[in-house]
Amino acid sequence: xKTTARFEQALKKLxxxxxxxxxxxxxxxxxxxxxxxxxxxxxxxxxxxxxxxKLNYVGRVHQNLGxxxxxxxxxxxxxxxxxxxxxxxxxxxLHYTNEKPKSPTDKDILFEGLTAVISYLCKLEAIxxxxxxxxxxxxxxxxxxxxxxxx
Length: 151
What we know:
Layout: H1 5-19, H2 32-36, H3 57-65, H4 74-88, H5 107-125
Helix pairs in contact: 1-5, 4-5
């Protein structure tokens, strides 16, 4: 499957963050977008609320100028973070009074968030969802559609 450089880089960073315990939904440097942007928190200045899709003035300027951060526009970054937080069980935008999981760094919760982010990244690239394992179990009289690649 042909993918883009931004997708490959994001996938590698998220994979490493998950397995090295550097994925944390409540930390702007260790959340999904924080990891995609090399553990920086500068992206948080694109919106006034963590988990919101509403760009603030700074975010709108960057969006209107066509700026990208590691290949992603400000709106795409906010949507990636929103997908991650919602799948982890947070009520958005993040606020101390809103619902959140009891253990936000639980591997099962983080895996749900990671799966949602990767699915969204695949949509952005207009490719099949790489997290969809159902094709591996197709058994009707059709030829095997997926080609497994191991690195």
